[in-house]
Design brief:
The complex is a heterodimer. By secondary structure, chain A is an alpha/beta fold. Chain A has helices spanning about 10-25, 145-160, 175-185, 205-220, 235-250, 255-260, 280-290, 295-310, 310-315, 345-355, 380-395; strands spanning about 30-35, 40, 50, 50-60, 70-75, 100, 105, 110-115, 165-170, 190-195, 330-335, 360-365. Chain A contains eleven helices and twelve strands. The longest helix of chain A has 18 residues, at about 380-395. The N and C termini of chain A lie far apart (about 65 Å). By secondary structure, chain B is α/β, with parallel strands linked by helices. Chain B has a single domain, classed as Vaccinia Virus protein VP39 (Rossmann fold, 3-Layer(aba) Sandwich), CATH 3.40.50. In chain B, strand 1, helix 3 (about 45-55) and strand 2 form a beta-alpha-beta unit. In chain B, helix 1 (about 5-10) packs antiparallel against helix 3. The two termini of chain B are about 30 Å apart. Classes of the chains: A alpha/beta, B alpha/beta. Chains A and B meet through helix 10, strand 12 and helix 11 of A and helix 4 and strand 3 of B.
């Protein structure tokens, strides 16, 4: 059976990119704050991380009374490079359509911060960072972290920047989970919040998809029990398969059908092989292979784990309890064709906020783009973000 | 975040359009600086009026996605939702006023909706088209068909109004729910309030719409 193009043809260019990504762990092309071993980060598990490095980007200028800071929380495979060229891929920022001068999150008015999450691989402490106990990369010795731990690390950064209260905390998907966690744990520090295309807990289906991804990584012999750093190989095949499976969940069935249908890739007929005959196969293989060049497989394991553990209701007994006494103004946004974090899940957040008579808006945006819609050029979504922030900024007296 | 009513008023641009008669009456009933939930808030016109004139802390619930998007983009706090389904989640007395303007006749369960309004709000304000108006009565009498008026222009098969009622009918429901009528105003198509205060029968005959200010009994 001829099998020509596998999902992981690693070219020299790709290897160079992977090496560039690995260098970001040690020496990120970002702003960096390092907390010494004497200031450990105590985790929800009871374990500690020290020293702690947080790599972050900022855009715009912090005003004199430090009232115009917006924290953006990135999603599973995102990073701090919201609105600048990515140092590894050379592509534009992942939310450059939303964040920038004159954009809905207007960096002419607001001081925008985005930090690489704890457990990430773009400069913040994660499994690829050096374990001070061994002098080698942590690998699976890295402690299991939670969304709460990510937020705690971000709060360290916000403290370091001398900001008491964030004008807004904004994030989609896993970023939205961090937004909710911020609002639950640091009520006084969040004036407005936009949880987007997210959920107050991970469902069985959410966990199931993540488990498939993790098993794909760990089934790759190149994973080597997580200790692949410094060896000649890395679990690129496993991680690519994980990404392929996950990518399907980011798109709607209609978007897939409209874009690819049963179309064939560079051929007129079936090859009667396991080549990527179909356009959709070729597309997914491409998504898988480009992802592994910029992302660390162990980070993928840890971050998906943190998402699976996320359950604000379990943490507070009742979801509404997470928001008791909140003065934060919320704007919850969902997308009609998002089946990963559907409107139903987002409405649970709204219900809980109504239950404590919080100030909340809820907008469901019509889109056929699936979960990924929050990253795309959705006009109505942009108008919502712009209007919500502008009205709150006026009330806050931000010029 | 302290701001004077004047400052707050400037935050919201009131579109250059006439204020709806029932909105004007509702605005007169609402105390300044109170917390208001507008159920079925439409394009947010009443909320904007109450915020600019009465400096209220206003929230809305609206079923139409387009309306909600427009409201939020204008800086109003509005939830996409439905009076029949989404009121049960609010805690008791969360608002000073729960408002339902020209919407109750389109709900599936008007009694449950009104019960919820009286639970969520310390006061409920409800406006509705009066099916007891003489033009409607005579239209039905002489044509033998469901009346269509400038007030209720749709055919029976297109209309969303599945629970039309008269002022007397509504008044009966208020009694069933053991609520107190603090104010009841009937008005005509030009938005002029009728001078009759003491005769429900006359209000029911001459008023094209009505606004009721209600309170759960024992709250005063």
């Amino acid at each position: 059976m001829p099998v020509r193009d596998t999902p992981i043809d690693v070219t020299a260019r790709q290897q160079a990119q992977a090496d560039a990504a690995a260098r970001q762990v040690i020496n990120p092309q970002s702003l960096v704050v390092r907390f010494p071993a004497s200031e450990p980060l105590r985790l929800d598990s009871g374990r500690e991380i020290a020293p702690l490095t947080i790599a972050y980007q900022t855009y715009g200028t912090l005003n004199a009374d430090k009232s115009n800071a917006i924290l953006i929380c990135h999603a599973l495979t995102g990073d701090q490079h919201v609105a600048n060229e990515h140092p590894v891929t050379g592509k534009g920022g992942w939310w450059a359509t939303l964040v920038g001068p004159g954009k809905p999150v207007d960096t002419d008015r607001f001081f925008v911060i985005c930090a690489n999450i704890l457990g990430g691989c773009m400069g913040s402490t994660g499994p690829a960072s050096e374990n001070p106990a061994t002098g080698r990369p942590y690998g699976v010795e890295f402690p299991v972290i939670t969304i709460g731990d990510m937020v705690k690390a971000q709060a360290r950064l916000v403290d370091y920047l001398g900001i008491d209260q964030l004008f807004s905390v904004i994030g989609g998907s896993m970023g939205g989970m961090q937004v909710l966690q911020w609002c639950a744990r640091y009520k006084e520090r969040v004036l407005t919040a936009m949880p987007i295309a997210t959920a107050p807990w991970h469902t069985a289906q959410n966990i199931a998809f993540h488990e498939v991804g993790r098993q794909a990584v760990m089934a790759d012999p190149d994973w080597q029990g997580g200790a692949y750093y410094g060896t000649a190989s890395r679990p690129a095949r496993g991680l690519a398969v994980a990404r392929m499976a996950a990518h399907i969940t980011y798109l709607s069935e209609k978007a897939l059908q409209d874009k690819f249908g049963r179309g064939l890739q560079n051929r007129d007929q079936h090859s009667f092989s396991f080549d990527a005959d179909f356009k959709i196969e070729s597309y997914l293989r491409h998504q898988g292979s480009t992802f592994v060049d910029r992302f660390d497989a162990n980070s993928y394991l840890y971050i998906t784990r943190a998402m699976d553990y996320f359950d604000l209701e379990a943490e507070y007994g009742k979801l509404a309890n997470a928001f008791t006494g909140t003065k934060t103004q919320f704007c919850v946004v969902s997308f009609t064709s998002d089946w990963l974090y559907p409107t139903r899940d987002n409405k649970e957040i709204v219900k809980a906020l109504n239950g404590v008579a919080a100030n909340v808006s809820f907008v469901e945006i019509e889109s056929d783009k699936g979960h990924d819609a929050f990253l795309l050029d959705e006009e109505v979504f942009f108008a919502t973000v712009r209007g919500f922030l502008n009205a709150a900024a006026k009330k806050r007296g931000i010029a | 975040m302290s701001d004077s009513p004047g400052q707050r008023a400037q935050d919201f641009i009131i579109a250059d359009r006439p204020v709806r008669a029932d909105h004007r009456l509702i605005a007169e009933m609402v105390a300044p600086g109170s917390r208001v939930l507008d159920v079925g808030c439409g394009d947010g016109a009443l909320l904007e009026l109450l915020i600019s004139e009465k400096n209220v802390d206003g929230r809305g619930v609206e079923i139409s996605r387009d309306n909600v998007n427009a409201c939020v983009a204008r800086g109003l706090s509005v939830i996409q939702g439905d009076a029949d389904q989404d009121l049960s989640g609010y805690p008791d007395k969360a608002f000073d006023y729960a408002v339902l303007s020209l919407t109750i006749q389109a709900t599936r369960q008007p009694k449950v909706v009104l019960e919820n309004l009286l639970r969520i709000g310390r006061r409920a304000i409800v406006s509705f088209p009066n099916f007891g108006h003489w033009k409607i009565r005579t239209a039905l009498l002489f044509t033998g068909r469901m009346p269509r008026t400038p007030n209720l222009p749709e055919t029976w098969f297109d209309s969303q109004d599945s629970h039309l009622c008269t002022i007397k009918d509504f008044s009966d429901l208020v009694t069933i729910l053991d609520a107190e009528v603090e104010d009841a105003v009937a008005f005509n198509s030009r938005g002029q309030r009728l001078a009759i205060k003491n005769s429900l029968s006359l209000q029911n005959l001459l008023g094209e719409k009505a606004v009721f200010l209600l309170a759960p009994r024992g709250q005063r």
